[in-house]
């Protein structure tokens, strides 16, 4: 008889009791495959590339170690500083990530603060940034705006996460991304999360990662019929980024060029 594989449980991962409590409140009884593999490596301080499909629990795979690391740093830190930066390609994803990190750190009281810079309230953001929240979540464009306005300092960053890395460049954020890297300190832990390893991902990898461990969670590709070949979608100007994001996320437009007719600002290139 084949022996059942023993899953490494959350409570065996050297996570703080406050984090374990939040996990239990979320109703998660055991880690997903990618969490089981990634969390111990990230807690060890390794740079990691996580390649896994949507819905595999990638957010917690990078967020739980990130929260743990901040709690550890806070035990000896003398001053409040921004210690983690999460870059994501869309406003929707930034918002989801902020909410997820807040839920996972809910039991840490007011110890850990997260801000999402992708929303439009710049005045309120400047105020929160002046208090140096622990985690900043942003799209590359918004992050660069704030950096160029000297609204924040990334010199104490210990962790950089690039979520949905394969979409970051597809959304036209290549220039911004490369500029942001110049504001980072020489040493930090980097995590790159992506559903596919595209040329863009390899480009980002060469800029931010040092000897990364690559975790690949292989899953069946979408069958060809599920991919769009030629479709016209009529959309309001404001809805275009969200629609594009949904199509990219579902990998329905992989290998296709998406052109917004009547829109001169951006022509999204092949993913
Ligand atoms: N260990 C777990 N047990 C049960 N549910 C979990 C666990 N980890 C995450 N989830 C839930 O699974 C869902 C997907 O998780 P998550 O958003 O982290 O996945 P993802 O791979 O980042 O997907 P997406 O690309 O959609 O963001 C979420 O609703 C999350 O609350």
UniProtKB/TrEMBL annotation:
Organism: Glossina brevipalpis
Name of the featured protein: RNA helicase
Highest taxon in the source lineage: Eukaryota
Catalytic reactions on record: ATP + H2O = ADP + phosphate + H(+)
Molecular functions (GO terms): ATP binding; hydrolase activity; RNA binding; RNA helicase activity
Record CDD domains: DEADc_DDX56
Domain DEAD-box RNA helicase Q, residue spans: 8-36
Ranges where the Helicase ATP-binding domain occurs: 39-215
Sorted UniProt keywords: ATP-binding, Helicase, Hydrolase, Nucleotide-binding, RNA-binding
Enzyme Commission numbers on file: 3.6.4.13
Span(s) of short sequence motif Q motif: 8-36
InterPro entries linked: DEAD/DEAH_box_helicase_dom, DEAD_box_RNA_helicase, Helicase_ATP-bd, P-loop_NTPase, RNA_helicase_DEAD_Q_motif
Enzyme class of the recorded protein, top EC level: hydrolase
């Amino acid at each position: 008889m084949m022996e059942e594989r023993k899953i490494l449980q959350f409570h065996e991962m050297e996570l703080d009791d406050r984090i374990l409590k939040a996990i239990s409140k979320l109703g998660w009884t055991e880690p997903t495959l990618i969490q089981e593999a990634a969390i111990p490596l990230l807690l060890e301080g390794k740079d990691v590339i996580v390649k896994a499909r949507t819905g595999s629990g990638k957010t917690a795979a990078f967020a739980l170690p990130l929260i743990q690391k901040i709690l550890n740093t806070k035990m000896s830190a003398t001053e409040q500083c921004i210690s983690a930066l999460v870059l994501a390609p869309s406003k929707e994803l930034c918002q989801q990530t902020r909410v997820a990190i807040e839920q996972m750190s809910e039991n840490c009281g007011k110890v850990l603060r997260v801000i999402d810079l992708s929303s439009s309230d710049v005045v309120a953001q400047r105020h929160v940034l002046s208090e140096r929240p622990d985690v900043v979540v942003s799209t590359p464009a918004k992050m660069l705006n704030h950096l160029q306005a000297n609204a924040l300092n990334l010199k104490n960053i210990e962790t950089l996460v690039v979520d949905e890395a394969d979409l970051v460049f597809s959304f036209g954020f290549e220039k911004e991304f490369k500029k942001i890297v110049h504001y980072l300190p020489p040493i930090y832990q980097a995590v790159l999360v992506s559903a596919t390893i595209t040329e863009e991902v390899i480009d980002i990898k060469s800029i931010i990662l040092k000897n990364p461990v690559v975790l690949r969670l292989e899953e069946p590709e979408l069958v060809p019929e599920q991919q769009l070949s030629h479709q016209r979608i009529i959309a309001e100007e404001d809805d275009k980024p969200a629609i594009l994001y949904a199509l990219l996320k579902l990998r329905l437009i992989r290998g296709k060029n998406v052109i917004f007719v009547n829109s001169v600002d951006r022509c999204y290139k092949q993913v």
